């Protein structure tokens, strides 16, 4: 077995560029149960941007806004709306990660950089991925601050909060399970090849338009994962259908390729979804007929089917076990970024058996928006 030229510890954080990060932070705190772990802005000496680090389980969302109209982050938010701009991966050596990926054809976005404060040295670099998304490599081995130099801890999160432990239980979101990217028609295989060649990822599974289609629309999807299986990046492209697919709707409103959704794992999807629903988070719904004969389709499960039906949670099974999943509606006005909540019981799949019911639900939402 060849040596892994890009060892990845975990997803370090995901950065969302927002029109108003302060208001977005309030939404993710009250709606999704995140706690504010760190802050950077005018009060910390940052004259260009404001950032709020929101933590729950092992998940960190960084919400960033520009403080002026000419900043690149302002232009990103103007073009795309609120969206994922940075996927940050924890690595043991950010310089090596940059050197290895760019040597294999990745386009550099941030050359190896180190910044220091009284809490140590933070090293990072970045390469370009689909659309305006960048993949950042972060080495925290010699940094023990709240998040990064220029940030101050909030809500009692001190220097010890960044050593990989769980920061805040919130509504039970534990970790990022996978992140899905949407790319334009014909581009999926190019990005599959990019992750394989430049980052050493392998293809876990492939879905074609026979797997993922309805009467009106279809899509193609391939799932890429790192050597440990901890980091999974499904990539979607639209397929020809009678009407506009959900992927094409995303591309039209995001004005290009980007991250479609972030899937967050939980150990108690019923408790998590109940809390999210009570906080005002809206979910896609499938017809109640989906739950008729559910256990005859997927076998015995631990959760009461009537409760799953009330909440709208979907179930799928493969050779290794089963999973439960549910999808929010888009979390901004544009029909772009949304979240998935997933609980795995052995299954490493992505809910193939739910695709048809789910996409028909999405099409009903598209029709309401006049975009089908």
Automatic annotation (TrEMBL):
<keyword id="KW-0677">Repeat</keyword>
<keyword id="KW-0408">Iron</keyword>
<feature type="binding site">
    <location>
        <position position="178"/>
    </location>
    <ligand>
        <name>Fe cation</name>
    </ligand>
</feature>
<feature type="domain" description="VOC">
    <location>
        <begin position="175"/>
        <end position="329"/>
    </location>
</feature>
<dbReference type="GO" id="GO:0006572">
    <property type="term" value="P:L-tyrosine catabolic process"/>
</dbReference>
<keyword id="KW-0560">Oxidoreductase</keyword>
<dbReference type="InterPro" id="IPR029068">
    <property type="entry name" value="Glyas_Bleomycin-R_OHBP_Dase"/>
</dbReference>
<dbReference type="InterPro" id="IPR004360">
    <property type="entry name" value="Glyas_Fos-R_dOase_dom"/>
</dbReference>
<comment type="similarity">
    <text>Belongs to the 4HPPD family.</text>
</comment>
<dbReference type="GO" id="GO:0003868">
    <property type="term" value="F:4-hydroxyphenylpyruvate dioxygenase activity"/>
</dbReference>
<dbReference type="InterPro" id="IPR041735">
    <property type="entry name" value="4OHPhenylPyrv_dOase_C"/>
</dbReference>
<dbReference type="InterPro" id="IPR005956">
    <property type="entry name" value="4OHPhenylPyrv_dOase"/>
</dbReference>
<keyword id="KW-0223">Dioxygenase</keyword>
<dbReference type="GO" id="GO:0046872">
    <property type="term" value="F:metal ion binding"/>
</dbReference>
<feature type="domain" description="VOC">
    <location>
        <begin position="10"/>
        <end position="140"/>
    </location>
</feature>
<dbReference type="InterPro" id="IPR041736">
    <property type="entry name" value="4OHPhenylPyrv_dOase_N"/>
</dbReference>
<keyword id="KW-0479">Metal-binding</keyword>
<feature type="binding site">
    <location>
        <position position="340"/>
    </location>
    <ligand>
        <name>Fe cation</name>
    </ligand>
</feature>
<feature type="binding site">
    <location>
        <position position="261"/>
    </location>
    <ligand>
        <name>Fe cation</name>
    </ligand>
</feature>
<dbReference type="Pfam" id="PF00903">
    <property type="entry name" value="Glyoxalase"/>
</dbReference>
<protein>
    <submittedName>
        <fullName>4-hydroxyphenylpyruvate dioxygenase</fullName>
        <ecNumber>1.13.11.27</ecNumber>
    </submittedName>
</protein>
<dbReference type="InterPro" id="IPR037523">
    <property type="entry name" value="VOC_core"/>
</dbReference>
């Amino acid at each position: 077995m060849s040596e892994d030229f890009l060892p990845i510890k975990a997803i370090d954080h995901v950065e969302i560029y927002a029109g108003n990060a302060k208001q977005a932070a309030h939404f993710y705190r009250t709606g999704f149960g995140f706690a504010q772990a760190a802050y950077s802005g005018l009060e910390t000496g940052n004259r260009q941007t404001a950032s709020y680090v929101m933590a729950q389980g092992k998940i960190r969302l960084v919400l960033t806004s520009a403080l002026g109209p000419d900043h690149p982050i302002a232009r990103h938010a103007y073009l795309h709306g609120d969206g994922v701009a940075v996927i940050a991966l924890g690595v043991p050596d950010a310089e090596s990660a940059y050197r290895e990926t760019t040597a294999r054809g990745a386009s550099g976005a941030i050359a190896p950089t180190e910044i220091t404060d009284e809490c140590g040295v933070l090293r990072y670099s970045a390469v370009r991925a689909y659309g305006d998304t960048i993949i950042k490599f972060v080495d925290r081995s010699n940094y023990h601050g709240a998040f990064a130099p220029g940030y101050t801890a909030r809500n009692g999160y001190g220097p010890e909060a960044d050593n990989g432990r769980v920061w805040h239980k919130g509504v039970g979101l534990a970790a990022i399970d996978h992140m899905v990217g949407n790319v334009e028609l014909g581009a999926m295989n190019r990005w599959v090849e990019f992750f394989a060649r430049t980052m050493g990822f392998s293809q876990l599974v492939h879905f074609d338009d026979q797997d993922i289609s309805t009467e009106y629309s279809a899509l193609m999807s391939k799932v890429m994962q790192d050597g440990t299986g901890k980091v999974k990046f499904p990539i979607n492209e639209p397929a020809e259908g009678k009407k506009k697919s959900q992927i094409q709707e995303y591309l039209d409103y995001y004005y290009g390729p980007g991250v479609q959704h972030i899937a967050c794992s939980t150990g108690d999807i019923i408790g998590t979804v109940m809390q999210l629903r009570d906080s005002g988070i809206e979910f896609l719904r499938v017809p109640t007929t989906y739950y008729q004969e559910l256990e005859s389709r997927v076998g015995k499960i631990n959760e009461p089917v009537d409760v799953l039906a009330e909440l709208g949670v979907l179930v799928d099974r493969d050779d290794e076990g089963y999973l439960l999943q549910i999808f929010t509606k888009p979390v901004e006005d544009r029909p772009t970024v949304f979240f998935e909540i997933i609980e795995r019981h052995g299954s490493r799949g992505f809910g193939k058996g739910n695709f048809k019911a789910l996409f028909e639900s999405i099409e009903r939402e598209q029709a309401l928006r006049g975009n089908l």
